[in-house]
Write a structure and sequence with these properties.
Number of strands: 15
Number of helices: 15
Oligomer: single chain
Distance between the termini: 56 Å
Bound molecules: zinc ion
CATH superfamily of the largest domain: HUPs
Helix content: 40-55%
Shape: elongated
CATH architecture of the largest domain: 3-Layer(aba) Sandwich
CATH class of the largest domain: Alpha Beta
């Protein structure tokens, strides 16, 4: 069996991946807060862990892998939208309007991530469906002396686990207090103590609890849901490296204190962040856009995925238009090469080996380039599909079979012939401009006219030419 090597944040080393149980490999990834459209940076962990999910399924079998990714649907921004809608006269209780907003954004999210070729995880729990489990876990933490109630809040007592807290991100509690922006509140015993439960006002959704009507803090949901769905010990925990502290540190503290005999997660994987044209993505820089924006602009999801895969997940990734154009040209070439071909029975060993080396997706793409250069279309197809590329359902953008380019070429050829007689080239110029605008390369020689789809080819633009 292939040995997968993964860089484990917990040990700061690349290790052989040994699952707790090879017939149930379990992975938990922190999912999105569903208050709006996902921006491009949100898509990076989705693609990274989708590749890992596909690799695990390839090595251990599709039915032997359980992938859980949550939806955070308890959030002030969701509340704000729901409240604004209620004030504008929308029907329903605040809780119903919150759920409506979450349903809407979850639908967008699944659509947009699906367009990037991401498989849906086996379980996609929503925080609001696990409130009872969170309350039970918080009660257990209080009973074990790791949490305390104060003024309607429940806080995790970091001092009760001080020697372990901070191990994942490599900080001590004292360093964190000195360096972090911690919320100082009179009811906290230690400024690093974090919220497990907080009170809700009438303008906020809330649930009854032993500490009054309130709602959970963010961190507890992942501890409660991973325990419910994967148990007290599971294999892989993933997320962006912006979640390492405090979110993952807090998940570990909660889970290890509630289930001291469990391991919680054995391997911790963190992806680096995404930039745009060399700059951090931000609303103030005007380079902030969503996956949906790109798809609407006609950038195919497969192209976005390809660009993502070119950079190793532990390195910062730069999204550039140039990369997107080059990725589109490569995919178009590969799609033409593999059209009508059946994929090889299994992915080429070199492709699997690259992925198994801590998800070296760039190395795997290099192997695919080699297979394409060798003209080995069947192996190219099988390898690309392991990476989530060249699938049938993602290929509509590159589908030129339905467009009769030769009839357009004949038209241009005829127009040229009559222009030679009349010396009026306006129709030739008009046609050429229209074909170029549709993303076609126009090759005219004395032998005839050829139209070749180039980057950005859009068959819809040929209608009405
Ligand atoms: Zn989480």
């Amino acid at each position: 069996m292939t040995t997968i090597k993964l860089h484990n944040t917990r040990t700061r080393a690349k290790e052989d991946f040994v699952p707790i149980s090879a017939d149930n490999v379990r992975m938990y990834v922190c999912g999105p807060t569903v208050y709006d459209r996902a921006h491009l940076g949100n898509a990076r962990p989705v693609v990274v862990f989708d590749v890992l999910y596909r690799l695990l399924r390839h090595v251990y079998g599709a039915d032997q892998v359980t992938y859980v990714r949550n939806f955070t649907d308890v959030d002030d921004k969701i509340n704000a939208t729901a409240l604004a809608r209620q004030k504008a006269g929308a029907d329903g209780t605040l809780e119903q309007l919150v759920q409506e907003r979450s349903d809407e954004t979850i639908g967008w999210y699944l659509h947009d991530m699906g367009a990037l070729g991401a498989l849906e995880p086996d379980e996609m729990p929503r925080a609001t469906q696990y409130i009872a489990q969170m309350v039970a876990m918080i009660e257990d933490l209080i009973a074990k002396g790791h949490a305390y109630a104060a003024e309607g809040h429940v806080l995790f007592a970091v001092d009760s686990w001080k020697e372990h807290y901070g191990a994942l991100s490599g900080r001590s509690v004292d360093d964190m207090i000195a360096g972090a922006r911690v919320e100082v509140a009179p009811y906290k015993r230690n400024p690093m103590d974090f919220v497990l439960w907080k009170p809700s006002t009438d303008e906020l959704p809330g649930w009854d609890s032993p500490w009054g009507r309130g709602r959970p803090g963010w961190h507890i949901e992942c501890s409660a849901m991973s325990y419910e769905l994967l148990g007290e010990s599971f294999d892989i925990h993933g997320g962006g490296n912006d979640l390492m502290f405090p979110h993952h540190e807090n998940e570990i503290a909660q889970s290890k204190c509630a289930h001291p005999h469990g391991e919680f997660a054995r391997y911790w994987l963190h992806n680096e962040m995404l930039q745009v044209e060399g700059k951090k993505m931000s609303k103030s820089l005007g380079n902030f856009f969503t996956v949906h924006d790109l798809l609407e602009q006609g950038v195919p999801g497969e192209v976005i995925r390809f660009v993502f895969l070119q950079t190793h997940y532990r390195k910062p990734m730069d999204w550039t238009e140039k990369k997107a154009r080059e990725a589109e040209a490569t995919l178009r070439k590969w799609r033409a090469l593999t059209a009508g071909i059946e994929p090889a029975a299994s992915a080429a060993p070199a492709v699997v080996a690259a992925l198994s080396d801590d998800l070296n997706t760039a190395g795997a793409l290099a192997e695919l380039h080699r297979l394409a250069a060798d003209g080995d279309a069947a192996s190219l197809l099988a390898g690309a599909q392991l990476l989530g590329l060249l699938s049938q359902e993602m290929g509509a953008w590159a589908d030129t079979a339905s467009v009769d380019l030769s009839s357009h070429a004949d038209r241009l050829s005829d127009a040229r012939a009559s222009a030679m007689q009349s010396k009026d080239f306006s129709e030739v110029d008009r046609l050429k401009a229209a074909y170029l605008a549709a993303g076609l390369e126009v090759r005219m020689s004395k032998d005839g006219v050829e139209l070749v789809p180039g980057t950005g080819f859009d068959a819809a633009k040929l209608e009405g030419v």
